[in-house]
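help with this record:
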Amino acid sequence: MIIVGMSSPFPAQADAPPPSAVPQGAVRLHDWGVIRAHGEDAATFLQGQLTSDVLGVGARQARLAGYCSAKGRLLATFVVWRDAAGDYLLACSADLLAATLKRLSMFVLRAKCKLTDATGDLPLWGLAGEAGLAALGGPAPGAAWGVAAIDGTAGGGQVVRLPDARVGGAAVPRALLAAGDLPRPAPPLDAAAWRWLEARSGTARIVAATTEQFVPQMVNLEAVGGVSFQKGCYPGQEVVARSQYRGTLKRRAFVVSSQALLQPGQEVFHDADPGQPAGMVVLAGTHAGASAGLVELKLAATEGGALHLGSADGPLLALDALPYELPTLAA
């Protein structure tokens, strides 16, 4: 099999939305947490546990990474980068941090690596739009997964550029700020609007309601740089590689919109097969009275018909364009 790229099957909206339609500002991310990995073996330990090439993370780089069970199902996803002291920081959903930290710690064994919950010492902020990035008081990294030090915050800080969200035909910049406070004031951003942009970025974040539900490719993790197929083994690596190279993957993640409220873990149904779920909501948020979600779906359910939330006669979901090309397997 050869990996080839193809465009998302759903056309982009041609016109950019009016500024009022784009969420902008800063929000304290209380639903995120941070694990710190300290010690001379931290890099090699994480390299053997996560789906990304942690050894390749430079001082000004971040990585998206998954942490899988032995069956290749995602237990958590992380944004991984290094702080000024060289420690590795792993940002993830707060509601699964404790369980994930406990599980990772079981495998440290004799490695010189100490894992701790650093959430209390390292608050995280979400910055969105030009108004949000202006809070940095200087330029943000120009490309996704770039990292920069930030002056003007208590104790210093770092900013990680995240993949842009797509709103209509416009790309909305996003960043993750690790700092005690904002360098400059910014308009307040609602947490639900931040999650709306997360969903529209097509970048999955596993939460407690969706842990162990997906193989990485089912939520497009490899399409956004979250899986390395050149590194060594990690838990579930054989399953992930088999999904990639044997053409067995029949599910992907897509962006949807709806007037109904979406929640991670909700099932999605297709009218051609109402007796069983066609997928599951991965991540969702609301803005200006509308919802957006990143939804894992059977590929067959994207080829026509109608999608419904929660049941075969539940609220309708509309497929939107992904903000990136979707890799596929070709014979």
